[in-house]
Design brief:
Blueprint: H1 36-45, H2 49-66, E1 73-74, H3 80-87, E2 91-92
Bound molecules: zinc ion (ZN).
Residues 15, 17-18, 20, 34-35, 37-38 line the site of zinc ion.
């Protein structure tokens, strides 16, 4: 596996980054032996989060300008507090 040791079950494939074994349900490896979770984390490191926040703020402003009821938008439950605090929105979940 690497200089830190040998895998407990050498017959199994392990992710080269996180050591997740191929027995993990649904796991797939790319040509470099990297699992989807590690690939996803790497993609997130290259996202322009400031630009994404501008898009989100624009979305909220448009939603708030079109609303006629007491709520501005629909968000997932875990995002309610952040939405109210950071975007001055009144969400319903
Ligand atoms: Zn991995």
């Amino acid at each position: 596996m690497n200089s830190f040791g040998t895998p407990p079950f050498p017959q199994l494939q392990y992710c080269k980054r996180c050591c997740m074994p191929e027995t993990n349900e649904g796991i797939k490896f790319d040509e470099k032996g990297i699992c989807q979770s590690c690939q996803s984390m790497e993609q997130k490191m290259h996202i322009d989060w400031d630009e994404r926040e501008k898009i989100l703020r624009k979305f909220f402003e448009e939603a708030k300008s079109k609303t006629k009821g007491p709520y501005d938008c629909v968000v997932g439950i875990c995002e309610i507090i952040k939405t109210e605090k950071n975007y001055s929105g009144c969400p319903i979940s």
